[in-house]
Design goal:
290 residues; alpha+beta; 2 domains
Length: 290
Amino acid sequence: MKKTPKLICMIMLLVLLATGVCSAAGLQVVEVSPKDGKTGMQISNMAIKFTFSEDMVGTSVDQNASKFRITDPEGNELPFQMIYSEEKYPDQLWLILQGELVPNTEYTCQVSSGVVSKSGNVLENGFNTTFKTRNTKIDNWISMAMMMGMMGVMFFATSKATKKAQEQQSGAPVETAKQYNPYKMAKEKGISVEEARQIIAKEKEKDARKAAKLAESKKAKDEAMAAEIEEARKRLEEEYEAARHASNYQVKGPRSIKDAGVAVPRVVVRKNRAKREAAKAAEKARAKKR
């Protein structure tokens, strides 16, 4: 029983120490996407997502945006837009990069201390995180190699079909194995040789018509097959040319902030409205001068 008060005191002391550590920790970055050192990132519609230990909504956007800096290997700053979603992602800040990035290039995002949460806690320690864009030249080469391989297969199939059609057109009639002997027929049927020759002539005409009909049917099938193969070959050539002249490898992704599923900041809405009103005023001024 004597140890009970000591045990209670130790537990209370541990709780106080743990509470002090948690309060001293302040605002923390829980996750960064893409992760530090991530490679193969897209060059269009690129975004960096920071997840914090507390809700960030309610703080000044400009105040926190000034604590982030994205640079290329030469140290040039890249423009970005900071957005957030109070309903879906209250603990996240997204940096949407403006324009396209350079392929196969490493970029650095510098986060300074002083980022403020909704409750007023501050990020005490800054840090850097990097990511590298994908090598679009390799992507284009892979696409071109696949196209060339498919074209090679189609060319082989076309050559084989054409060769087969030529052999069938220049070959011997189908009934070449059938033999006509008027003397043997006359002996077997008990008729004269002249009568046997007349019968054989009619049989030959009948076989010739049958062979011509078969040859015409085969020719029509071969022409249809050749036309289908030629159409597929032309389609592959068009796809190959389109891939060869493409300037970069497009990666599917959200095309706008709205598509990304996040809220558009009011400051952006106001700026866009001001731009539209200024454009209308300028147009009216030009119309009056005319």
